[in-house]
Amino acid sequence: MITYFLCLVLFSIGLFCAVRKRNIIKIIIGIGIMEYAVNLFFILIGYRAQGRSPILARDQAITNIVDPLPQAVALTAIVIGLAVMLMLVALAIRIYERYGTFDITKINRLKE
After folding, report:
1. pTM, whole model, 2 decimals?
2. Structural domains counted in the chain
3. Is the CB of residue 91 less than 8 Å from the CB of residue 110?
């Protein structure tokens, strides 16, 4: 139960960074922290104490098997999160090249 709470704390830290910070790089890092918290939560959902892999032989009983579905969802989320991070970093680089700053309060005109 404490691990679920720690996932919530990690997500809250990322949310705070994404909402309250004014630096684009810090916002991107906050979004990344939130993604990692969600992925950790997915992994913890499928965790079983003393669990074993879901690969069965013919004479084995189905007892205490780790659920593979949350792991597959987390793996998919990691790949999608990596693509999103790459797009955000590319966007931040383009903004810096155009305006010379990462501070969103100093960027007063985004359209020309």
Report:
1. 0.82
2. 1
3. no
